[in-house]
Specification:
The chain has 237 residues and is mainly alpha-helical. It has one domain. Helices cover 78% and strands 0% of the residues. The chain has 9 helices and no strands. α1 crosses α5 and α4 packs parallel to α9. The longest helix has 37 residues.
Length: 237
């Protein structure tokens, strides 16, 4: 993906050179999958939900990917806005910058998903590994869209981080298996992806229609991200 667009490769290297990014890539999956899987089950029980065991561990991997992808998506657009506008003023088309940014974000999302899946595999295994990995990737792609959308409106790192974390917490603790009430969860973008992970963690397969729905939501998230990066890179008069 980055081979056809060397600028995307530069953006990816720029992200990976940050030591805090590398530390988060290692620590967050361990925190969500290894440490908090049992805690997720206890929270679900307290809130009236039913997720536990392998399903809770699989859901933790999805949330690890979502949190990381949302945070990195926000910081990528928030920190690159001025630089991208200068590049656009220098003659680089904003659409090319947007493609490079979303390509770098997607590669990061794949790396995040692989790390989360590897942690899950070591901790609890996976009956349906391809289904589980695909569902985790859907979490990452959807939260890339959320992070970049927040970053296109909020420039402050503290405010933006809190906004992404707020959306994440509502999404996580009102989602399938975590709460007896599904009123709020119907509005959250990862509801279907969470259903896929819970089902895979329980050793069952999901209908094709559910996968198509999740892929459609992920495609919308990619369009939102691309538009956010394009708008952010446009020079202002």
């Amino acid at each position: 993906m980055t081979g056809s667009n060397p600028i995307a490769g530069y953006f990816l290297v720029e992200q990976m050179r940050n030591r805090s990014t590398v530390a988060m890539l290692v620590a967050i999956p361990i925190l969500f999958v290894v440490v908090s899987a049992d805690v997720l089950g206890e929270f679900a029980s307290a809130l009236g939900g039913s997720v536990a065991g392998s399903s809770a561990a699989a859901l933790g991997a999805g949330w690890a990917a979502a949190f990381l992808a949302g945070a990195l998506g926000f910081f990528q657009i928030a920190s690159s806005r001025d630089a991208d506008r200068r590049l656009a003023l220098a003659g680089l088309a904003p659409i090319r910058l947007a493609v490079a940014r979303i390509s770098a974000s997607l590669v990061l999302g794949i790396i995040i998903s692989l790390l989360a899946f590897a942690t899950l595999w070591l901790r609890a295994g996976a009956v349906h590994p391809l289904h589980t990995l695909a569902a985790i990737l859907m979490f990452a792609v959807i939260y890339i869209g959320i992070g970049t959308l927040v970053g296109s409106f909020v420039s402050g790192p503290l405010e933006g981080s809190l906004a992404v974390a707020f959306i994440f917490l509502i999404d996580a603790f009102s989602g399938p298996g975590m709460s007896a009430s599904d009123g709020v969860s119907r509005l959250m973008p990862t509801r279907e992806a969470a259903d896929l992970l819970i089902t895979a963690g329980a050793g069952r397969t999901s209908p094709t229609g559910d996968w198509l729905t999740v892929m459609a939501i992920a495609a919308v998230a990619l369009v939102v991200s691309s538009l956010a990066f394009w708008f952010s890179a446009r020079p202002r008069r």
